[in-house]
Amino acid sequence: MELGGLLREQFQQYASRTVPTPQPVTLSIGANLFDQPPTSLAALIEQGDVALYQSKRNGRDSIRFVERPMADLSQ
């Protein structure tokens, strides 16, 4: 959470200086936490993508984590 917060803060500062837009440009982050190395990179990416879009649907400019054992990621 701390790293994601720092990334969002730095992105917001950079974007406000370099990308003049009517609405603020924000950063949404989706991430996976798992207890075993991935057996399927595709499943890992898919779960991160699901978390990202949950973050966007819940107001954007946020961080969403999916925490699952790797056995659950293959389903």
Automatic annotation (TrEMBL):
Gene3D superfamilies: 3.30.70.270. It comes from the Bacteria. InterPro entries: GGDEF_dom, Nucleotide_cyclase, Rev_trsase/Diguanyl_cyclase. This is GGDEF domain-containing protein. Residues 1-68 form the GGDEF domain.
